[in-house]
From TrEMBL:
Species annotation: Micromonospora rifamycinica
Highest taxon, organism lineage: Bacteria
InterPro entries on file: Peroxidases_heam-ligand_BS
Designated name of the protein: Sigma-70, region 4
């Protein structure tokens, strides 16, 4: 059997009992998430065997040493294909703490809290274990594992550096200091309707992308021009994840979502810039 150093032996060798208990719990979470991902992979493999090789599910059951009923159960109960969009898990949902003049402690905006709650529900529905992380007010942090950051470039140099690697879009302040999302070729600018000086509206745009942290690591980022836009972007993801996964899979990409709001309620969310898959040569 293939072996891999995934921390198991380190847990076994740990002498400190409290440290060993903590490490064991963390590794159990990893194993549980891998089991869920294996169930998803098995379901997809069965479906591909039927679609690509023309095998009946009875034939597949025989080849796998299972009953036809068990094959049906696997196909009905295993996680859907689009779960892979967010990785294997556990998934860390990261939001920024913001320093507020006159307050001793930093706070999380109500919109970021709402977006994190919506994303947590989406991830839980996909059988992910979800962990939460608060990015320090200076924006410096070290993403590890599968991470979904609800955090724009203004709030963290880490997300700013990741977005700077995007070959299709930029997310920077313009000459007046107003933050906008732009096509790198200059063909279009995505501005927040909230910033319209003539007729500001309760609407926003958001950058969404899976971006490089290193040659091997990526980070998923949702970043409204204003925090409200992140809520709208998560609403779009929750309603369109199967189609988005079918288009981008697990590749690096970026897109822009526009949303309209009535208080805390998203009344509309739609793509204004379709997903651009990034060249990963």
């Amino acid at each position: 059997m293939e072996t891999r150093d995934d921390g198991f032996e380190r847990v076994r060798r740990e002498a400190d009992p409290l440290r060993q208990a903590k490490l064991a719990g963390e590794l159990m979470s990893v194993y549980q998430q891998r089991a869920v991902e294996l169930a998803r992979l098995r379901r997809e493999a069965i479906n591909r065997a039927a679609a690509d090789q023309g095998l009946s599910f009875s034939s597949i059951a025989k080849e796998l040493g299972l009953t036809r009923g068990r094959i049906t159960q696997i196909r009905q109960t295993a996680p859907p294909a689009e779960r892979a969009f967010f990785g294997v898990g556990p998934v860390t949902v990261a939001v920024p703490l913001r320093a507020v003049p006159g307050r001793a402690l930093p706070v999380i905006s109500s919109e970021d809290t709402r977006a994190a709650d919506l994303l947590t529900k989406l991830l839980a529905d996909l059988a992910f274990q979800v962990e939460h992380f608060h990015i320090a007010p200076d924006g410096n942090w070290q993403p590890r594992g599968d991470v979904a950051a609800i955090c724009g470039p203004k709030s963290s140099p880490v997300t700013a550096q990741a977005i700077a690697s995007d070959p299709a879009l930029t997310f920077e302040p313009d000459d007046t200091g107003r933050w906008t999302i732009r096509e790198r070729d200059g063909s279009r600018v995505y501005e927040s309707p909230m910033d319209d000086p003539a007729a500001p509206r309760w609407a926003d745009v958001a950058y969404v992308g899976r971006l490089a942290l290193s040659d091997e690591e990526t980070i998923f980022i949702v970043a409204g021009v204003h925090a409200l836009g992140s809520v709208g972007a998560i609403d779009y993801l929750a309603r369109n994840l199967p189609d988005l996964y079918a288009h981008v899979g697990t590749q690096r990409f970026s897109m822009v979502v526009r949303s309209e709001h009535d208080g805390d309620t998203v009344t509309r969310s739609e793509l204004v810039c379709p997903p651009r898959i990034h060249d990963q040569k």
